[in-house]
Design goal:
It is found in: Membrane. This protein is an alpha+beta fold and 422 residues long. It contains 7 helices and 11 strands.
Length: 422
């Protein structure tokens, strides 16, 4: 889970954990050393006092003791050893009796036991004060590590954040944009900036090649398309048999559709969607009426029933070329994949649906059909599987959304939700 945290937070966490471990080990070491020294010093002190006491007792003198130390011996009827200390081994020991604690020093001489017992209250107070200081130092070191970690993380991440903002900026793809590496030191951040300069340079070249290719292709295609469209207009003015007139109309529709595709591809390769607005603006109803008339005839010729329904009124205006491209591709798709039944173009407020009673789309393929060159197991027509990919690309360019679902008992429904902003 730590690897999923932001990098700056990981620096703070790592810095704090490191200080927590080091300070914890250091504090435990202090406590252990203090406890060990305490036992050693008290043992040495009680050993010296025992020597003095035994010397006094040997001289027939009362033992010299401070107020916190008591003397017990098996040889004295007045200072008999209490039952609490009767089993202490020779040497230094600590005995706890409820809330009371004692240091006990025992010495055995010719089957006689001599004990010095000292209360621990004074030592415990000093020890507790030391432990409080150690705990306070531990907590302060952790808090200081957290604050220092935040400051260090902010300082370390500042050039990374700046570099990320520069890379995300649109102007960085401009041909005259200055290189990023020149602003950074020759360190890891500078090397990362150099790598971004190299990647952005390759991307600029790729985009420039795509723009030049698309511009050249669109320019070269416009002339023959204009000739085809003009020829169709001239042929429509001539008296022709119905079959030939239908063929001329079909050629004209294909030329118009190709012109829309040329304009669509030209717009899509631009760096900014707002730089170009080819085709003007149109309402959803007007484009739908045009496409319904355009695709209704071939659908009826195939024996399908075509329905044009309006479930809601949408008064917004949209890019005519893009809207025609999306709607035309979806209607063509419905025509190819519907053998019998009905195709519906349904308008609603803020979007439209294209419904058919065709073959349907398996659930596991509904996401993949929008990928380039994916046609599915039930492919129809001679296309390459780019129509729905183009539709999704146009929708993403305009801020629209497209989704597909199944219809019962069979068929598919493509729903396009449009952005009302012009």
């Amino acid at each position: 889970m730590l690897s999923k945290q932001p990098f700056a937070r990981r620096i703070v966490i790592a810095f704090t954990l490191m200080t927590l471990v080091v300070s914890g080990i250091f504090s435990l070491g202090i406590v252990g050393i203090v406890h060990s020294i305490e036992r050693h010093l008290v043992s040495e002190e009680l050993n010296r006092e025992m020597n003095l006491v035994l010397h006094d007792v040997g001289q027939g003198l009362p033992p010299r003791l401070d107020s916190s130390t008591r003397f017990f011996a098996t040889t004295s009827s007045e200072s008999r050893i209490p039952e609490l200390f009767s089993e202490t081994p020779p040497g230094f020991a600590e005995v706890v009796d409820g809330e009371d604690a004692f240091y006990v020093y025992t010495r055995e001489i010719r089957d006689q036991r001599y004990l010095l017992v000292q209360e621990q209250h004074e030592f415990e107070a000093r020890e507790q004060a030391l432990f409080d200081v150690v705990l306070a130092g531990f907590l302060l070191s952790v808090a200081g590590a957290w604050l220092l970690g935040r400051l260090m993380a902010r300082k370390v991440m500042a050039p990374v954040t700046r570099l990320a903002q520069q890379v995300q900026h649109r102007d960085q793809l401009h041909p005259v944009a200055p290189p990023l590496a020149a602003e950074y030191s020759d360190d890891e951040i500078g090397h990362l900036a150099s790598a971004f300069d190299s990647a952005l340079g390759e991307l600029q070249l790729s985009l420039e090649r795509e723009r030049l290719f698309t511009s050249d292709v669109s320019h070269e295609l416009r002339t023959p398309l204009m000739i085809v469209a003009t020829s169709c207009e001239l042929l429509e003015a001539v008296s022709l048999p119905p079959r030939e007139r239908d063929l001329v109309a079909r050629i004209g529709r294909a030329a118009e559709e190709m012109g829309d595709l040329v304009q669509t591809f030209l717009t899509l390769v631009r760096m900014r969607p707002e730089e170009v607005s080819l085709g003007g603006e149109a309402s959803l109803a007007s484009v739908a009426a045009e496409q319904g008339e355009r695709w209704g005839t071939p659908m009826r010729d195939k024996g399908l029933q075509f329905e044009f329904l309006e479930e809601g009124n949408d008064g917004a205006c949209y890019n005519r070329t893009f809207l025609r491209t999306v709607m035309s591709n979806l209607l063509r798709n419905a025509l190819h994949y519907t053998d019998s039944g009905t195709v519906r173009l349904v308008l609603q407020k803020g979007g439209f649906r294209v419904e058919d009673t065709g073959l349907g789309i398996p659930l596991d393929q509904q996401d993949r059909i929008f990928e380039p060159f994916v046609r599915g197991e039930r492919a129809r027509g001679e296309g390459l599987g780019l129509g729905l990919s183009l539709v999704r690309r146009v929708c993403a360019h305009q801020g629209w959304t497209i989704s597909v679902s199944d219809l019962l008992p069979r068929g598919s429904c493509f729903l396009v939700v449009l952005d009302h902003a012009p």
